[in-house]
Amino acid sequence: MELETQEHLEHAEHAAHAAEEGNSFITTVSVTIAILAVIAATVGSMETLATGGAIAEKNTAVLKQSQASDQWAFYQSKSLKKNMYDIAAAQATASGGKPEDFEKSAKRYDGESEEIKKKAEELEHERDEKLAEGDHFEHRHHILTIAVTIIHVAIAVATVAIITKGQKWPWYASIVLAIIGMGVAGSSYVG
User: Fold this and answer.
1) Half-sphere exposure of residue 50, counting CA atoms within 13 Å on the CB side?
2) What is the Cα–Cα distance from 133 to 139, expressed in whole angstroms?
3) Which three-class secondary structure state does DSSP give residue 165?
4) What's the rounded Cα separation, in Å, for the pair 78 and 70?
5) pTM score, two decimals?
6) Residue 13: what pLDDT?
7) What residues contact residue 166 under an 8 Å CB cut-off, 6+ apart?
8) pLDDT(5) > 60
9) CA-to-CA distance for 29 and 82, rounded, in angstroms?
10) Chain CA centroid to CA 125, Å
11) Residue 96: pLDDT over 80
12) Are 6 and 142 in contact (CB under 8 A)?
């Protein structure tokens, strides 16, 4: 990010030198380059924020998956205990004993298992939501990368107008590219 900031400042400095020549068109192009440098820096910052959002959401998704896995392990533990009490109750019945205590414990574990299962499924749903949000940020990041690249190209093309001592087509082309780049950046926030 620091390198990009340096690059924008360098473009602005070159534009300032060109503006000192006294040619009003060159001054206009120089101001355009300075404005495009600010726009590129802004879109670059938005790109960085999108990257951070993607990382944060995907990390949260990993945490939710871990929590869901813990709940599923707990669920399996309770299910095993319930099955052991079911077997013990069946053994007690078969041997003429009293299966009521075993059946009561099996029922308790069955009820606890359902609560644990519900919690695990909720965590998996939260994980899926966080993954989708992370994908959304990642998609925005990709679009913003394209947008900032187009704006950088616009800066370079505008510089050609200075190098060629006032040819207007590069400046017009840079304006068109800048508008396209800003449109692409804006589209990353729509939908």
Assistant:
1) 20
2) 10
3) coil
4) 12
5) 0.73
6) 67
7) 23, 25, 26
8) no
9) 78
10) 18
11) no
12) no
